[in-house]
Amino acid sequence: MDFLNAFVALANFVIIPAASYGSQLAIGALGVTLIYGILRFSNFAHGDTMAFGAMATILVTWGLQGMGVSLGPVPTALLALPAGIAITALLLLFTDWAVYSFYREQKAKPVVLVIVSMGVMFMMNGLVRFIIGPDDQNFADGERFIINARNFREMTGLSEGLAFRTSQGITILTAIIVVILLFWFLNRTRTGKSMRAYSDNEDLALLSGINPERVVQITWVIVAALATIAGVLYGLDKSFKPFTYFQLLLPIFASAIVGGLGSPLGAIVGGYLIAFSEVMVTYAWKKVITYTVPPEMAPDGLVQLLSTDYKFAVSFVILVIVLLFRPTGIFAGKSV
Amino acid sequence: MKKLLLASAAAALAAGAAQAQDVKIGVILGFTGPIESLTPQMADSAELAMKEINDAGGILDGMMLESVRADSTCIDSGAATAAAERLVTSDGIVGIMGADCSGVTGAILANVAVPNGIPMVSPSATSPALSTAEDNGLFFRTAPSDARQGEVLAAILADKGITSVAVTYTNNDYGKGLSDAFISNFEGDVTANVPHEDGKADYTAEVGALASAGGEVLVVFGYADQGGKGIIQAAVDTGAFDTFVMGDGMYAEALVGDLGDMLAGSYGSVPWSEGEGSDAFIALTEAAGVAGESSFTRESYDAAALLALAMQAGGEATSAAIAANLLDVANAPGEPILPGELAKALQILADGGDVDYVGATNVELIGPGEAAGTYREYVIEDGAYSTVQFR
Question: Which residue, of A61, A86, A102, A107, is most buried by count of CB atoms within 10 Å of its CB?
Fold first, then answer.
């Protein structure tokens, strides 16, 4: 029995990857939930907004790299992030002005807006591919590892290695900072309060002198920031390919709905819940169990509940269970 | 309807035969789709062989070869079948140089070639399943089956004394076929056989399963610019595996360039041709302005040449003549024929002699008419491929 090696193997393949993936989902789900809470529709274009934000950041990063700017061990992309957010915010404000505002004036039903957002999704989809192409793009630089698997093994003398990538560290750290900032903004600032008021009751908010257009615009800017940060972190940690952001839409929506649509806290909890479920259900537990039980009880098979191919199915199943038994989600958001 | 089609096909064939001077050969390759960057060079190489024959006065006393191109799409069996059907019924081809990808090749063989009695020579379909397909002796290929590559890789591992491996393959006909072939030949213990999907951003989950299963090395049957690369990256990042064994899809200079030191000491196999046949082919393509160094161009040239020589040997420009004589001209005994010597081969055959077509890829058709193939065993050292030996 060797609990230390078991824990290291678990940390290496489950805890660290799931924590960073969960952070990316949580930031993505925060964007979805904000739009749902304030603009009252499910934004299907969110995945492609993330792709657009990441793309804008990549282009700026390449520019910076070309000029020889570098942050040393930290990826240059973080320096380019504000510019990426600004470009994405402009695009979202333009989309709102050109598309969504028309339907808002018509007082269109949420389901109409959902379909409209799908149209926007396809447009952004095409835009991103048109600008940067459908292929993998590499923009990560700086130090690759905080803890390198080989060095860890040599340092500790354990048979299991532990790898902690810089991108994973940055992802988790950024997620914490973003969440703190967002909650401070929503709960403590005047603008944040006006947004919550608008979300709770549009008519009362109007009566108390809140400018709805301003609330909508600020929402889009915040969503642009969240989407770009989530997109860039995902791209840094994994790889940037436009199509994978489209696929992210399902786990992100699952996270937002599981936590409770419209509830920021729910989005964060949902993000980690989905990420840990996906990773743990598809992980082969053979190694960890072999370390923790007496040798004669060690399993022969892989002890894998679901093949890794079914990763997305996990989000689906959780989504279905939540919708059946608790349609408002864990934190009692709006029912779907 | 089928009778009508057959009748019109027969009529078209008869009409083609009546005109007598032109012999049409279908070139069915995926001019659109996943391998569209390779197919133009493949078609050019096949047509280079036909041009060489026409320049020498054609086959059978002055009958000229004419190439008719059609798009196999590589992935859409329906479209490929329709394209091949059109070549047979309206163009009246006598043989097919193609198709390229294993899936569409099987579809054309079953739906068009066998019902119409049209022989096919594929330059690039490598699925082991095609060896046992119902073909009435009409299917040949100048590319070796992956069953053979599975044997070669298993032999390489046996020589290195490796007894326990984890295997991952790209989840399609190619990956599955190659992994099955490898596992059935491998003497040691396969701890896990995990498929991976191409085009994903992250392969940590797949690598987690493979690492949990363990093994001395990780065998990767994927694509160098797709999931295979992602798997290796994730395996090195997490410290799961240090050494990788790679199939032919993983052979790319770009892979070594991107991953660099991570691959040091890893090894694998790739179909390779070298020697005077290959050199003669390169000289020929350079003179003709065709990009001969591209993949499967040698096999394409050989496929077209074999079709023509088989007709010459059979003494008539018919599908039956090709099917009956193709193995004879491809294999010993006879005068060895290199690229650029097709005129000589035609003359020998016209005089009643025997040829052994060597071509650009050392053609030797075995079993049901497929190339034996030569594989290069390589190891990656100092960020570059270096040859260990040929198998």
Answer: A61
On whether residue A34 sits in a domain, the answer given is: yes
- Report CA torsion sign: B177, B183, B184, B185: positive
Q: What's at A276, amino acid-wise?
A: F
Residue A336 confidence (pLDDT) above 50: no
Q: Does B213 touch chain A (CB under 8 A)?
A: yes
Tell whether B238 is within 8 A of chain A (Cβ). Answer: yes
Contacting residues of B for A163, CB less than 8 Å apart: 237-239
Q: Which of A10, A13, A23, A292 to mutate to test the interface with B (most CBs of B within 10 A)?
A: A13
Q: pTM of the predicted model, to two decimals?
A: 0.76
Q: Which residues of B touch A308 (CB under 8 A)?
A: 194, 196, 205-206, 208-209
Q: How many domains would you assign to chain A? A: 1
Domain boundaries, chain B: 2-144+282-371, 147-272+375-390
CA distance A98 to chain B (A): 32
B57-115 pLDDT, tens digit per residue, is: 888 888 899 999 999 988 889 999 999 999 999 999 999 998 888 889 999 999 999 99
Look up residue A174 and give its two tokens: 């950024």
CB contact under 8 A, B209 and A304: yes
Q: ipTM score here? A: 0.80
Smallest Cα–Cα separation from B27: which of B76, B83, B77, B79? Answer: B83
Residue A200 to residues A37, A41, B88, B143, Cα–Cα distance (Å) = 8, 14, 69, 67
The rounded distance, in Å, linking the Cα atoms of B308 and B311 is 5
Distance CA B53, CA B58 (A): 5
Angle between helices A190-200 and A212-237 (to 10 degrees): 100
Q: Are B144 and B126 in contact (CB under 8 A)?
A: yes
Residues near A153 by beta carbon (within 8 Å), at least 6 away in sequence: A159, A160, A161, B239
Cis preceding-peptide flag for A251 (omega within 30 of 0): no
Which CATH number characterizes residue A193's domain?
A: 1.10.3470
Could you report the per-residue pLDDT of A222-267, keeping only the tens digit for each?
999 999 999 999 999 888 888 889 889 999 999 999 998 888 899 9
- At A118, list the tokens: 């799908």
Q: Which CATH superfamily is domain B2-144+282-371 in?
A: Response regulator (3.40.50.2300)
Residues of A in contact with B207 (CB under 8 A): 13
**Measured between CA atoms, how close is B285 to chain A, in angstroms?**
31
Helices (H), chain B: 2-19, 39-55, 77-86, 102-108, 114-116, 146-160, 173-185, 204-213, 227-237, 253-259, 276-288, 297-314, 319-330, 342-350
Q: Which CATH architecture has domain B147-272+375-390?
A: 3-Layer(aba) Sandwich (3.40)
